[in-house]
Amino acid sequence: MRKKLGEGRLLPDTPDMKAWRKEFEKMSLSEHDNKLRQLGLGDEEIEEFNESFKETKKTKAKA
After folding, report:
1. Can you give the chain as a three-state secondary structure string?
2. Which top-rank group of organisms is this from (predicted)?
3. Are 53 and 32 in contact (CB under 8 A)?
4. What integer pLDDT is reported at residue 34 of this predicted model?
5. CB–CB of 36/46 below 8 Å?
6. Phi/psi class of residue 8: alpha, beta or left (left: φ > 0; alpha: ψ in -120 to 50)?
7. Exposure of 32 by Cβ count < 10 A (0-12 exposed, 13-18 middle, 19+ buried)?
């Protein structure tokens, strides 16, 4: 049996991940929302993502 990965664990920084991150950073929040809905997330989960995303952006701006 495989051990379940911890929540919030960083994904490996592969070339695919770098390309995805570049595309992801160019998206608006509404585009993020649409992409997350396509992946099967509900409104509550999307709102949680948006709050986390905004906090991360604020932290990066202060640094």
Report:
1. CCCCCCCCCCCCCCHHHHHHHHHHHHCCHHHHHHHHHHCCCCHHHHHHHHHHHHHHHHHHHHC
2. Archaea
3. yes
4. 94
5. yes
6. left
7. middle
One-letter amino acid identity for 47?
E
Dig out the tokens for 4 from the structure.
């379940």
Q: How many residues does the chain have?
A: 63
**Amino acid code (one letter) for 60:** K
Residue linked to tokens 């993020």: 32
The predicted pLDDT at position 4 comes to 65
Chain centroid to Cα 45, Å, comes to 11
Helix/strand/coil for 27: coil
Taking 50 as the pLDDT cut, the residues of the chain under it are none
